[in-house]
């Protein structure tokens, strides 16, 4: 368990409390990593996750005023453990009033490359180049994950989100990989949509989307838009899956500094993330009972 | 030179801002072209370059011409057909368009569709035109239309997007087989320029707050530089509140509570996404016009460079204001607003059954000539 900053620690307390009452056979090893923690602390956390295989995490704040060689702790954890798929499930929850209804979207986001490569340099004074990396291997991997998930969850269509009209080589490669993988799953309809149109469609008619797959940055944006559509950052859980490890957190990864320690943060997202973790650990009965309790309290 | 409206030259950062007065002129009541125009045009008519483009572009341009004709608006259109999809695009055509722009200073553009296939050139014609004219600022005024109910009403925000660099630099290469690197370029000069534009716009339009949108927690150098430039510029405008927000949070807030935003400024890609998201909030691409500015030119177009099914010719209204034709632009604008408020004639994208031509005819009928 990595509580993180802001509202993280208090939300973790809620999870522990609920698990205690439900007699869940899970023992938490707490590892503290602050925003200014030295690299050694982060490595320690990563080793702990390797040991245990699964983690529940709050968001570690990234101070952008620190020099650029100080990398985002969250990103470091994701890339070191190769947690290549970020999955969030945006569902209209009963009892939560929103402008849109009947939303049920699974968003699969590539979690390790793209715009988050942290490769930047100032080539000439006043000119900064940031590299966005897209590779065929990782694009195919995430596409396979998305289609596999769609098949396992009996979903009917997968939409790839991209901007290949502008980034012809980069997003073009991503799109091509998705198309190649789609051919191996003939029962699933494959569509592609440009990211700007996607965001417009999401706010006008989100019910048309089923499973979505996309590179890192668009995933970040679409995750947040969808979370907003179903009721906000306090309601949607997220999971980061790799081959060997899985880390669960809230979908929108907020630190919530402004509401920390005031007993107003919504624990729903973290509790549902904990349920996803229990499912992953095959403690299905505990997962469903806690999930039902959470949804009943929302009603 | 009479700068009108109290604009003054400001020397900041040792020059480069001498063209600032032109912005004031462009937004103010000065016609961009002298009335004694060339090519034997009638005195007092303004020339506007028109690029119908692809998709619904030509129909829309036709609608604009019809409405202007009905309203006796003194504008002549210099049409150019530049299309990548229909293979009528070439370097010479692009140059001719630029020459035409040098004369007219104002243009109306449909959408120049960018084909997805990689035909050997990474920069689309759309982008190249923008770069040649140095149209660095894209302004989208997202306003709820009275009479058209959407999930969010009474929305009024302005999105200012840097349009010449960022992710749209078209610099990509395959360094190793199966690995593509795309370069996103952020420069201090262009970031300062767009920030200054945003604050000037806010000052001119009486806006209270400017929010810079970025992802500096991940792209520390790139977006960090953008953010820093915005902060520096903000210090020179003490009356305007300055705020920053990360792009993902911004998108979520736009969906949940868009009323908190006033003017937003951001680099290229985020601008593209936020423009479209905000357009979706008030009813789609068909009801939101966009404007692009450089130090010398102004271009008016639809927001989402896609192909909406039916739309409102809001664009000529803005072009009219620019050309100093305030009377005419108000007339057309009022007619359009009246038709929408009336609610009887609605195109498909607004939930109705009318065709584009029906709508145009309704606007013409509503013109009080």
TrEMBL record, chain A:
<dbReference type="GO" id="GO:0006099">
    <property type="term" value="P:tricarboxylic acid cycle"/>
</dbReference>
<dbReference type="Pfam" id="PF00180">
    <property type="entry name" value="Iso_dh"/>
</dbReference>
<dbReference type="GO" id="GO:0000287">
    <property type="term" value="F:magnesium ion binding"/>
</dbReference>
<keyword id="KW-0496">Mitochondrion</keyword>
<dbReference type="GO" id="GO:0016616">
    <property type="term" value="F:oxidoreductase activity, acting on the CH-OH group of donors, NAD or NADP as acceptor"/>
</dbReference>
<comment type="similarity">
    <text>Belongs to the isocitrate and isopropylmalate dehydrogenases family.</text>
</comment>
<comment type="subunit">
    <text>Heterooligomer of subunits alpha (IDH3A), beta (IDH3B), and gamma (IDH3G) in the apparent ratio of 2:1:1. The heterodimer containing one IDH3A and one IDH3B subunit and the heterodimer containing one IDH3A and one IDH3G subunit assemble into a heterotetramer (which contains two subunits of IDH3A, one of IDH3B and one of IDH3G) and further into the heterooctamer.</text>
</comment>
<keyword id="KW-0816">Tricarboxylic acid cycle</keyword>
<dbReference type="InterPro" id="IPR004434">
    <property type="entry name" value="Isocitrate_DH_NAD"/>
</dbReference>
<dbReference type="InterPro" id="IPR019818">
    <property type="entry name" value="IsoCit/isopropylmalate_DH_CS"/>
</dbReference>
<dbReference type="GO" id="GO:0051287">
    <property type="term" value="F:NAD binding"/>
</dbReference>
<feature type="domain" description="Isopropylmalate dehydrogenase-like">
    <location>
        <begin position="1"/>
        <end position="299"/>
    </location>
</feature>
<dbReference type="GO" id="GO:0006102">
    <property type="term" value="P:isocitrate metabolic process"/>
</dbReference>
<dbReference type="InterPro" id="IPR024084">
    <property type="entry name" value="IsoPropMal-DH-like_dom"/>
</dbReference>
<protein>
    <recommendedName>
        <fullName>Isocitrate dehydrogenase [NAD] subunit, mitochondrial</fullName>
    </recommendedName>
</protein>
<keyword id="KW-0809">Transit peptide</keyword>
<dbReference type="GO" id="GO:0005739">
    <property type="term" value="C:mitochondrion"/>
</dbReference>
UniProtKB/TrEMBL annotation, chain B:
<dbReference type="GO" id="GO:0051287">
    <property type="term" value="F:NAD binding"/>
</dbReference>
<dbReference type="InterPro" id="IPR024084">
    <property type="entry name" value="IsoPropMal-DH-like_dom"/>
</dbReference>
<dbReference type="GO" id="GO:0006102">
    <property type="term" value="P:isocitrate metabolic process"/>
</dbReference>
<dbReference type="InterPro" id="IPR019818">
    <property type="entry name" value="IsoCit/isopropylmalate_DH_CS"/>
</dbReference>
<dbReference type="GO" id="GO:0016616">
    <property type="term" value="F:oxidoreductase activity, acting on the CH-OH group of donors, NAD or NADP as acceptor"/>
</dbReference>
<comment type="similarity">
    <text>Belongs to the isocitrate and isopropylmalate dehydrogenases family.</text>
</comment>
<protein>
    <submittedName>
        <fullName>Isocitrate dehydrogenase (NAD(+)) 3 non-catalytic subunit beta</fullName>
    </submittedName>
</protein>
<comment type="subunit">
    <text>Heterooligomer of subunits alpha (IDH3A), beta (IDH3B), and gamma (IDH3G) in the apparent ratio of 2:1:1. The heterodimer containing one IDH3A and one IDH3B subunit and the heterodimer containing one IDH3A and one IDH3G subunit assemble into a heterotetramer (which contains two subunits of IDH3A, one of IDH3B and one of IDH3G) and further into the heterooctamer.</text>
</comment>
<dbReference type="Pfam" id="PF00180">
    <property type="entry name" value="Iso_dh"/>
</dbReference>
<dbReference type="GO" id="GO:0000287">
    <property type="term" value="F:magnesium ion binding"/>
</dbReference>
<dbReference type="GO" id="GO:0005739">
    <property type="term" value="C:mitochondrion"/>
</dbReference>
<feature type="domain" description="Isopropylmalate dehydrogenase-like">
    <location>
        <begin position="47"/>
        <end position="363"/>
    </location>
</feature>
<keyword id="KW-0816">Tricarboxylic acid cycle</keyword>
<keyword id="KW-0496">Mitochondrion</keyword>
<dbReference type="GO" id="GO:0006099">
    <property type="term" value="P:tricarboxylic acid cycle"/>
</dbReference>
<keyword id="KW-0809">Transit peptide</keyword>
């Amino acid at each position: 368990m990595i509580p993180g900053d802001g509202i993280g620690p208090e939300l973790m307390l809620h999870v522990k409390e609920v698990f205690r009452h439900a007699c869940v056979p899970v023992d938490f090893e707490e590892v503290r990593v602050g925003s200014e923690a030295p690299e050694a602390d982060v490595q320690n956390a990563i080793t702990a996750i390797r040991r245990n295989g699964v983690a529940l995490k709050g968001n570690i704040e990234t101070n952008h005023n620190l020099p650029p060689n100080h990398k985002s702790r969250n990103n470091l954890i994701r890339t070191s453990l190769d947690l290549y798929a970020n999955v969030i499930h945006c569902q209209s929850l009963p009892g939560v009033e929103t402008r849109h209804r009947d939303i049920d979207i699974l968003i699969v986001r590539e979690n390790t490359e793209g715009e988050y490569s942290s490769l930047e340099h100032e080539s000439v004074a006043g000119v900064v180049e940031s590299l966005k990396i897209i590779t065929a291997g990782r694009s195919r991997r995430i596409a396979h994950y998305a289609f596999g998930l769609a098949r396992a969850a009996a979903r009917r269509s997968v939409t790839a989100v991209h901007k290949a009209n502008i980034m012809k080589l980069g997003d073009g490669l991503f799109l091509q990989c998705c198309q190649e993988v789609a051919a191996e799953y003939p029962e699933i309809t494959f569509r592609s949509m440009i990211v700007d149109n996607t965001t417009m469609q999401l706010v006008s008619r989100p019910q048309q989307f089923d499973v979505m797959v996309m590179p890192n940055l668009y995933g970040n944006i679409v995750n947040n838009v969808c979370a907003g559509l179903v009721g906000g950052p306090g309601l949607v859980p997220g999971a980061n899956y790799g081959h060997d490890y899985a880390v669960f957190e809230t979908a929108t990864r907020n630190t919530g500094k402004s509401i920390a320690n005031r007993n107003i943060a919504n624990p729903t997202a973290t509790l549902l993330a904990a349920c996803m973790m229990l499912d992953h650990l095959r403690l299905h009965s505990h997962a469903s009972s806690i999930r039902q309790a959470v949804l009943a309290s929302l009603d | 030179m009479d700068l009108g409206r109290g604009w003054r030259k400001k020397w900041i950062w040792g020059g480069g801002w001498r063209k600032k007065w032109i912005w004031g002129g462009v937004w103010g009541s000065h016609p961009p072209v002298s009335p004694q125009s060339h090519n034997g045009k009638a005195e007092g008519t303004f020339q506007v370059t028109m690029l119908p483009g692809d998709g619904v572009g030509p129909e829309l341009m036709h609608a604009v011409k019809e409405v202007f004709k009905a309203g006796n608006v003194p504008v002549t259109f210099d049409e150019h057909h530049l299309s990548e999809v229909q293979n009528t695009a070439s370097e010479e055509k692009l140059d001719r368009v630029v020459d035409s722009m040098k004369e007219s200073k104002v243009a109306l553009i449909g959408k120049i569709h960018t084909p997805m296939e990689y035909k050997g050139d990474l920069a689309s014609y759309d982008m190249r035109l923008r770069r040649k004219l140095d149209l660095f600022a894209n302004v989208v005024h997202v306003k709820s239309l009275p009479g058209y109910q959407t999930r969010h009403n009474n929305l009024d925000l302005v999105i200012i997007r840097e349009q010449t660099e960022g992710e749209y630099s078209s610099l990509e290469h395959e360094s190793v087989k199966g690995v593509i690197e795309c370069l996103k370029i952020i420069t201090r000069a262009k970031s300062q320029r767009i920030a200054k534009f945003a604050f000037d716009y806010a000052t001119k339009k009486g806006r209270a707050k400017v929010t810079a949108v970025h992802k500096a927690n991940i792209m520390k150098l790139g977006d960090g530089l953008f953010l820093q430039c915005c902060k520096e510029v903000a210090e020179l405008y003490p009356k305007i509140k300055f705020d920053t927000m990360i792009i993902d949070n911004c998108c979520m807030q736009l969906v949940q509570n868009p009323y908190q935003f006033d003017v937003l400024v951001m680099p290229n890609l985020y601008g593209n996404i936020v423009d479209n998201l905000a357009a979706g909030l008030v009813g789609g691409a068909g009801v939101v016009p966009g404007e692009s500015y450089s130090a010398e030119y102004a271009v008016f177009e639809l927001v989402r460079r896609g192909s909406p099914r039916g739309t409102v010719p809001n664009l000529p209204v803005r072009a009219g204001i620019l050309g100093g034709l305030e009377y005419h632009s108000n007339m057309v604008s009022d007619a359009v607003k009246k038709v929408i408020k009336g609610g009887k004639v609605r195109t498909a994208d607004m939930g109705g059954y009318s065709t584009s031509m029906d709508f145009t005819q309704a606007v013409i009928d509503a013109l009080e000539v």
